[in-house]
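C-alpha cells
________________
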Amino acid sequence: MIQEKLNIALYQQDIVWEDPQANYRKVKQAFESAIDHTDILVVPETFSTGFGDHMARQAEEPKGPTFEFALSMAKRYDALFVGTWTVKENGIVYNRLHLVRPDGNYDYYDKGHTFRMSSEASQIGRGTRRITAEWRGWRIRPAVCYDLRFPIWLRNTTDWDYDILLVCANWPGSRYEAWRTLLRARAIENLSYAIGCNRVGRDSTGIDYAGCSAIIDYKGLPINEIPPSLDAANPYDRIITAELSADKLATFRQHWPFNLDFD
C-alpha cells in the first residue's frame, strides 16, 4: 500500500574535507534545526569526507561508523536516510549509495559510472547492477552524480519500475547548467519525480560547487530548488523540503501514457 503523501528533506551540504565527525555534526544539526518530521532524509555524495583522491583510503567496512551514523538519523526521524560513502568489500572499494531504514535494514547501490575525468575511475570499483528500493510503498531508483548523464542506465520500464529517481552528487559548479537540465530531462522522460542532492562550497583542491539541489516533478517542473550558489565564500548550505503526491503522479501517468511507446 503506497503512502499517498511522501515528505522529502534534502541537505545541500558544504562538506568538511576528510573530517567525518565534523560532517556528522553538521548533518545532525542541520536537520534538527530545520525539520520535525520527514519520510526521507537525503545528503550529498560522499557526505562524510568529500569527493577526491582520498576516497579509497577512507573506505569503511560495510557497517562502519558512517553506517552507524546513518542508522541513528533514520531512527531519530523514523525515516529513510540516503547518502553515499566509500565502502571496501572483498578487496574492492565502491562509492556506495545507502538507503538505511530505521530498523537497520538497508538497500545499497554501487555507483555504476565512475568519473573517468578524475581519479575515481582508477581507484573505485564500478557497480554493475541497478536496483529499485521500496519505502512506504514508493519505488525508488538510486543514482550517483555522473550516472545522471546516462539515460539508458536510468530508463524506467513500461510497467513503472520506479516512482522517484534519487541522485546524490558532487557535481562541480562549472557544469551546473548540465546538472539542472539533466535532472529535469530524466524526470520528463521517465515520468517520475527526480530528486537531486548536490554538495556546495569549495573543496580542498579548489573545485567550487554551485549546489542547485532540487526536487522536480514528473513534468520536469521544480517543486522546490536552491538557486546556483556562485560565491564559494558564502555557500547556500541549507535544507529544502517538499511533499510528493502518489495520486497526482498516477493521474498524470494515466492521462499521458508515454511509457507505452518507450524504446
User: Anything to note?
Assistant: The radius of gyration is 17 Å. The chain has five helices and 14 strands. The mean pLDDT is 97. The chain has one domain: 5-261.
